[in-house]
Amino acid sequence: MGPDLPAAVSFERLQAPFESASDAVARFDERLRSSPVAEAFVLRAHFHDACAALWRIGEFVQLEDLVLHDAGADVRTPTHELVRAHAVLLTRRRIADREPAWALTTDGLASLRGAGSPQNAASAPTNGSRAMDEADEEPDDEEGETFGAGEFDEIDELLTRTSRVIERAQPAPLKRDDSGLVYDDDWDQEARIAEWRGRLDGARNLPPLMAACVALDAWEEIEPLQHSAWLGPLLAAASLRSRGKTRHYLPALHAGFRQAKYRRVGRDDFESRLTALACAIESMAKADSKELDRLTLARELLLRKCKDRRTNSRLSQLVDFCLASPVVTVPLAAKELRISQQAATTMIGELSSNLRELTGRGRYRAWAVI
To answer: For the chain, what are the domain ranges?
Structure first.
């Protein structure tokens, strides 16, 4: 029997599946370290994991819609599911951009679940609006100059767009339902979070992958949050990073569990659940390895189109964008490369033999790497 495991659990029976899964994760992490498409893979993994997180709770979000929504180029009004998937996407990016152990700290976990943010969010606009009011009271013409009403319209528009991006990147304050119809009034989130953190601390002496699985199983058993249940696998992935098991990416556990055949049911015992989680993570690592091979081959084929080009050609930049984004459209390519839509259409046409057209329509077309 291993350390910090219940007496009924056999460490010997868990050793084989966890060693196999641990080796698969370590091999893929090492491959990613020296891969030329590592950054593209990481960017794609964020989108795939966000869609898989909604799928696991019974909601369907198309990958194309999430990419367009993230770029601010929605073709229709965003649905509630799409907004939630985008929240998962932003949370994954926050965890991946911070220090490996940040998400598991008290402050990091409080920030991710939105605890304490309403006061900060409420005070910031007040200060900003007060500063704007004071600025409005002061005359603009210190030396007697007068400015036309429309001279600063472009600056105001730029500030407005910047404010929208900042507000979208910050975690939204939690809205509690006071009627008791949606959220349980007796649900003590703080106590449940404390219980889960106790399970996490109790698994520190276990191997990294086993400790992450124990933390994830405890999250699904305790259910600390009535909302944002998708945060558990992200914290388990952060646990792998903090223990040094994955140094070059944040594992997409949601996507791995979506591919796995195992579905958690109440009658499964603890040992069976841990074994199933290990097998799911191993399947995730193998699928990620195949995806890395596919992106590497696609990059080689696309870069062949860039040979004998002018030195100022942006075709190679378009190749990088096609690899990094799961979906490419003409407006997105034009915005990313800062070129006209006509030029973007021409460049995409030059790469069309190695791109797959998704829509089959004459307008609002989208492409993906084969």
So the answer is: 11-115+187-292, 305-369
* pLDDT tens per residue, range 198-234: 999 988 889 999 999 999 999 989 989 888 889 999 9
Which CATH number describes the domain made up of 11-115+187-292? Answer: 1.10.3290
Residue 190 has, within 13 A of its CA and on its CB side, a CA count of 3
Q: How far apart are CA 225 and CA 193, in angstroms?
A: 8
- Angstrom CA distances, 145 to 142, 148, 152, stand at 7, 10, 15
Please write the tens of the pLDDT for every residue from 266-295: 667 888 889 999 999 999 999 999 999 999
The secondary structure of residue 98, as a DSSP letter, is S
If you compute the radius of gyration of the chain from its CA atoms, what whole number of angstroms results?
24
In angstroms, the CA 327 to CA 66 distance is 10
CATH class of 305-369: mainly alpha
Q: Is 339 exposed, middle or buried (0-12, 13-18, 19+ CB in 10 A)?
A: middle
Task: Give the global pTM.
Answer: 0.78
In whole angstroms, how far apart are CA 325 and each of 48, 80, 141, 149, 293?
11, 23, 48, 41, 16
> How far, in Å, CA of 212 to CA of 242, rounded?
10
Contact in structure between 139 and 146 (CB atoms under 8 Å):
no
Residue 76: DSSP 8-state: S
Residues listed for the chain? 370
Q: Which helix (H) or strand (E) holds 369?
A: strand 367-369
> Which residues share a beta bridge with 367?
328, 357
Backbone torsions φ then ψ of 162, nearest 5 degrees: -65, -40
CA distance 150 to 113: 42
Q: Strand ranges (DSSP E) for the chain?
A: 355-357, 367-369
CA–CA distance, 300 with 1 (Å, rounded to integer): 49
Higher pLDDT, 209 or 188: 209
